[in-house]
Write a structure and sequence with these properties.
Protein name: Protein CLT2
Oligomer: single chain
InterPro entries: CRT-like, EmrE-like
Strand content: under 5%
Order of helices and strands: HHHHHHHHHHH
Membrane topology: Multi-pass membrane protein
Shape: globular
Largest sheet: none
Subcellular location: Membrane
Low-confidence stretches: 265-271
Radius of gyration: 21 Å
Keywords: Membrane, Transmembrane, Transmembrane helix, Transport
Distance between the termini: 48 Å
Amino acid sequence: MLSLPKSRFMAIGFLEALGIATGMAAAASLPGPAIPILSQTFLVWQLVFSAILLGRKYSWNQIAGCVIVTAGLAVAVGSGSDAGQILSGVAPLWPVLMVVSSACQAAASIMKEFIFVDAATRLRGKSLDIFVVNSFGSGFQALFVLLFLPFLSNLKGIPIAQLPSYLMHGAGCFLNVGCEGAPLLPLLYVITNLSFNITVLNVVKKFSAVVASLVVMLSVPVSIYILSLPLPFLPEGASLSPLFLTGSSMLVLGLAFYYIPLPSKREAKTD
């Protein structure tokens, strides 16, 4: 562990924090349905960065599978919205910032995969614990997010001098001072988020960052379906349109397409 360059974890934390900052800035000025759709450029950036940083080459069915997954998710998430007018009246800066946010997050995920690959050589075949990557990456991410707080508060029109009062109010809300559901809901979120991050890192370690993204994309329509049900603190359910089912089917089809085994060149020559 000591032989691993800490600068890589710092770069991961910086990229993730920058992705959060730019994403939050863009999300404040974008219509809701546009946010998850623009975020799907994440997978495209991953393919680009993995080819550059890891030297990966993807077959035509893998690229096609990623395209189908992205299109399916866009259809599922954007169902019920007018795609032609979804960005009408929005300055071009905000969609660009959302795409930049996805690029930063994608670069960070590929760097994590690179760390796992490089660690096998540096640690002489020993496996790098995912908790090491998660802890160092999250630590640097938290540090850079704090450094970006003045920038984020300025975007929301909050003077820097008022930041301490906002933080105190947030801490009070966490301790259930005038906030319903606290601290149970925040703690559940933290536990779920940690479990999610560890699971995704495990997929990155065993497979690749692109595969992890495809799995995460599969969870999006599942999450939308669950949130459409009447749940505690979310009592009103919602009906899902046929486009949602179409997009979900496309997503599953894209995942299957990505994993279609292709015959090797030797087998092709033999045939």
